[in-house]
Amino acid sequence: MVDVAKLAGVSQQTVSRVVNNATNVSPDIRERVETAIEQLRYRRNTAAAALASNRTMNLGVVSYALSVHGPSVALFGISEEARLNGYSTRLITIGSLDRASMRAALRELNSDEVDGVIVLAPLYSAVEMLRGIETDVPVITFEQGSPETSMSVSIDEVTGARRVVRHLLDLGHETVWHVEGPPGWMASTARHRGWSAELSAAGRVVPPVVTTADWSAESGYRAGLELADRPGITAVFAANDPFALGVMKAFDERRIAVPADVSVVGFDDVAEARYFQPALTTVVLDFEEVGRVAVERILAMMRGEDAETIPLIEPMLVVRDSTAPPPERG
C-alpha cells in the first residue's frame, strides 16, 4: 500500500478508501490509485485487514432452494460485491424450513466465523423462523415483493406484475389469465397481487388462477394444457419464465399459436428468454442488485451507521415477440 500511495501521489489512507470502495474519493484520484494498483499488481492482504479491523472478513449466506432463479442470481451478486470489498463468503444451504434448521445454520455462522449474515430464503415460513432467533452479527433478508424496511432487500414485484397486465390490456385483451407460483413463496403472492390489482383497477374480470406445485417448466406445461381446454383465453401471465416456456409448449401441441391466438408473458427475464420461440415478453428483475444492496447494507450496519429504509428495486418490462393484439372475433 505504501508503494501504491507513492506512485499515485496520495496518502495511504486514500489508497485504503479506494480499495474499500469508499464514496468520498474524487474520480481523478480514484483513477490514479487504480492505475497504480494495476501497475504494481497490488492485492489487498485480507489477513492483515482482518487483524487491523478485528473482523473475520467473511460474510455468511443462508440459502434455501438455490435451484430457483432469484436466489441463485442474488448469491452471485453477493459474492461479487463481497469480493470487491475484500470479503469472502461462506454459504450454508438448508434443506427444510423449520426453526431448528434455521437456528442451526445461524449458529454455525457465529460471530467467530462471519461479520454478518444474508438470508436468501424468500418464503413466508423462513421469515417467520427468523423471528425470535438472536444473533451476534447483523442479519439482512431477501424478501421478494415485501414493503420497504431497513432489514430486508426487495424488488417491487407487485409493480412488475401490474405492468404486465397493463401491457396486455393496452394491446386490447379483455382480461389476463394467471399461472401462479407455488404456495408459500413471497414472489407468488406479490405477482398475484399485482395481477389482480391491475385487472380490478381497470374494471376487468379477474379469472381463477391456475396453480402450480413448483417453479419448473413442467408445472408450466401442465398449466398450459389446462388453459388450452378453456375457450376464449387470449392472454396469459406466467409467474416465471419457465412457466411461460411450458405454457407455450402445451399451446403448440394443441395447435394454439403464440402470439396470434394467445399472448404469453413471463417474469424474471432468464438468460434464455430472448431465445424462446417466440422470444418471450417478460419482466427484468435485477437479482444481482439484490445481492449488491444486501452486502452494502450489512457493511453499513457493521460501521454503526443508522438503519435507513432500503428502497425497493425497480422492475422493467421487456416487450418481445410473444405478445400481440388479440385475434379478431369473426
TrEMBL record:
Keyword Transcription found: yes
Magnesium listed as a keyword: no
Q: Which UniProt keywords apply?
A: DNA-binding, Transcription, Transcription regulation
Pfam families linked to this entry = LacI (PF00356), Peripla_BP_3 (PF13377)
A single GO molecular function, which one?
DNA binding
Q: Tell me the PROSITE patterns matching this sequence.
A: HTH_LACI_1, HTH_LACI_2
Q: Which InterPro entries match?
A: HTH_LacI (IPR000843), LacI/GalR-like_sensor (IPR046335), Lambda_DNA-bd_dom_sf (IPR010982), Peripla_BP_I (IPR028082)
Question: Where would I find the HTH lacI-type domain in this sequence?
Answer: 1-53
Instruction: Quote the protein name from its UniProt record.
Output: LacI family DNA-binding transcriptional regulator
Species assigned in the record: Herbiconiux daphne
